[in-house]
Amino acid sequence: MGSALYEKGKTVHNKRIDGPFRRFKWLVMLVTLAIYYITPWIRWDRGPYAPDQAVLIDLANRRFYMFDIEIWPHEFYFVAGMLIMAGIGLFIVTSAVGRAWCGYACPQTVWTDVFQHVDRFFDGDRNARARLDKAPWTVSKTARRLAKWAVYLAIAFWTGGAWIMYFADAPTLTVDFWTGNAAPVAYATVAILTGTTFWLGGFMREQVCIYMCPWPRIQTAMLDEKSLIVTYKDWRGEQRGSLKKAAKNPDQFGDCIDCNMCVAVCPTGVDIREGQQIGCITCGLCIDACDKVMAEVGRPRGLIDYATLDQCKAEAAGAPATPAWKALLRPRIFIYFGVWGAIGAGLLFALGTRTHTDLTVSPDRNPPYMLLKDGSVRNAYTLRLRNMEARPRDMEIAMLGLPRGAVMWTDAVSVENAAPVQVIAVPANETKIVRAYVMLPPGTDEDDSEHFAFRLTSLDEQGEQDIAETTFAMPEDDE
Amino acid sequence: MANKRIDQPTGTETVGHEWDGIEELNTPLPRWWLWTFYACIAFSAVYVVLYPAWPMIDKATAGTLGWSSRGDLAKEMTAADMARQSVFEKIAATDIEKLPGSPELMQAAVSGGAAAFKVNCVQCHGAGAAGYQQFGYPNLNDDDWIWGGTLTDIEYTLTHGIRWQNAADTRVNYMPAFEGVLDQSQIGAVANHVLSLSGKAKANSIGAQLFTENCAACHGPVGAGMPAMGAPALNDAIWLYGGTEAAVRKQILAPRHGVMPAWKDRLDPVTIKMLAAYVHSRGGGQKAAPAQPDTTPTPATTGAVAQTAEKAKTDG
């Protein structure tokens, strides 16, 4: 039935291969997995008032810690900036080296690779695995499958378990997790991530890339004839033929001996000789395979290679092969890189110049002012004093630009202690909300309202300041 | 389906349809996708049984789990009430003047009071508690209190109301109308004297004399008022019904008397306590004086006030 509505899934049994790209893939896998599993366990001393985990997304207290950087909710633009950089970073990578992300660094690729090695460990290489798949369900096959799936599950659980370590103190959470004292959301997250890793990495694999993931579609739109892709040089390879055939008629056949090694090693099961396709994640394993075969048969390497379509065209027309890195030097990549670098530089600048104190003021609008018995006028303000240092600090609040006689007090300091300046103790790593009253003495001559500012000064050696402008409202007329 | 053919560039079979030369390639879905679809159908079948689903005439089918969003809300509200219960109990057990001594309790009381204020008080006193002068609803943010501004005073006012007929212990006083008692020029002189108390007019001896004879008994010799009997201070910058000469004359001729409901029948004591804390915290609250000789009215005064009240009622 060529016209069936649904296609039965085919398991990809990719053959083991060794070569430069495979080794690079091992390296990337090692680095990415190491970062993923080790990062939450790195300790970073921030003193007694802040967590000592180097990378921590503290959702409950709304803080994001990354080594020496601490991001507060009002600084979310740093996170937004990093997300934009990640987006543009993918644009750079795609226009420069095509789907390198898909081929090496994407978690789906990395975990699929891990699971395929588990397959190889339990069931042998390509042919053995294909045979076992078709074999009837004997006791030994069942036992083998159960053992394999148990390892899948262990890997999946470790994956999900590592994820939650980013959101709480890792050693404490580990103990809580195993003693049943962790938050329900921790168990739910681990369960969901274990399930998805088991299912997507163990069984769906290339189906995720081909049918589920939006990124290949976006990349299809972003690739052009100057982007590096993995390509089969058909002008050199065709007409395909076995060594025997080629020995008989050397003029009729190209370099491809039709050994199918490129298909056998492909982790997504595509035939690269059909050209660019959505299933090709450009991992380069077919290059390793083909180079090996070419070496064995004594033909030059690079029948399948990283190249741009333009380079292929030039090569086919007889020009000498261009080194692949030359594809990187083009305006599009420079423009992306410029934007990416500018955002990065802007973020670094903002990070370097930010102070660790912050003051925001919102005046009471209802009522805007309050006439008191003796004719003085009082305004009320809500002050938010941020102390972004991991230690408690005293902060001084002063008023700039109000007439003489203006005094201030807060909900903590009663009106008897009203003074032009107040000192407020702000706990470490916290925003203190203070309701402040400002009073002008009777007879102050102001028509409507007056602009002035609160100045926050940290009373420590840093002496950081922040100024927040606001207004003082007065009665409109004297009745 | 007779026109199926193999599409040359892709090597894929077409489905056989053709619209103005546009053909469709047959690229089959993977089978697991189909299973996902069936799984969704199975899920929905279970869901329909367990949860509210089919719309009927007045409401949807209930579902065997008996879940409803209203029920969720009720559960959350009950849980929130339970969580607040211990704080409420502590507030109930604490004497109101002792509340500020415990910052957490005071903060809880002020927050609870702010919420209750929005429901029960803003209709007259406004969302910012600033009152409405044109209607005589007093401002609760300032430091002028007709009936006293300590926590105890405010709690009493809230509990028993002002001139609230259905509450036996309500705060009552009535300023007599001077229409027909004083003539126009005398009223002008008194009004002038009243304004002079806060420096808004020049002093005049006729007005001062009339004030001493007619007004000082309640408002005091210098017009400082008497919170114990609800006589407002006249020597400050705050005027319940306006501080112009015309407004003062009007109030002497035919005084207006505001009414505030007694809340003891409608709110529980803890809510009233929290409301008092909130109003007290608006910036003008007074501290309870160590010795308060004048807080409780003497029986004689009460009698006089009650008589005046009866008179005013019959007059009105």
Salient structural properties:
heterodimer; A: 479 residues; alpha+beta; 15 strands; 19% strand; B: mainly alpha; Cytochrome Bc1 Complex, Chain D, domain 2; 11 helices; 45% helix; elongated
Characterise the protein shown here.
- The complex is a heterodimer of chains A (479) and B (316).
- Chain A has 479 residues and is of the alpha+beta class.
- Chain A is built from 16 helices and 15 strands.
- In chain A, strands 7, 8, 9, 11 and 13 form a 5-stranded antiparallel beta sheet that branches. A 4-stranded antiparallel beta sheet of chain A has the order 12-10-14-15, with no helix packed on it.
- In chain A, strand 14 and strand 15 (465-473) form a beta hairpin.
- The longest helix of chain A is centred in the first third of the chain and has 26 residues, at 139-164.
- Chain A is elongated, with a radius of gyration of 33 Å.
- The model of chain A has no long low-confidence stretch (mean pLDDT 90).
- By secondary structure, chain B is mainly alpha-helical.
- Among the domains of chain B are: 81-165 and 268-281, Cytochrome c-like domain (Cytochrome Bc1 Complex, Chain D, domain 2), CATH 1.10.760.10; 184-253, Cytochrome c-like domain (Cytochrome Bc1 Complex, Chain D, domain 2, Orthogonal Bundle).
- Chain B has helices spanning 31-50, 69-93, 103-120, 122-125, 151-160, 184-197, 205-214, 216-219, 245-253, 269-280, 299-315; strands at 6-7, 12-19, 22-25, 29-30.
- A 3-stranded antiparallel beta sheet of chain B has the order 1-2-3, with no helix packed on it.
- In chain B, helix 3 (103-120) packs across helix 10 and helix 5 crosses helix 10 (269-280).
- The radius of gyration of chain B is 35 Å and the shape is elongated.
- Residues 291-316 of chain B have low confidence and may be disordered.
- Chains A and B meet through strand 1 and strand 8 of A and strand 4 and helix 1 of B.
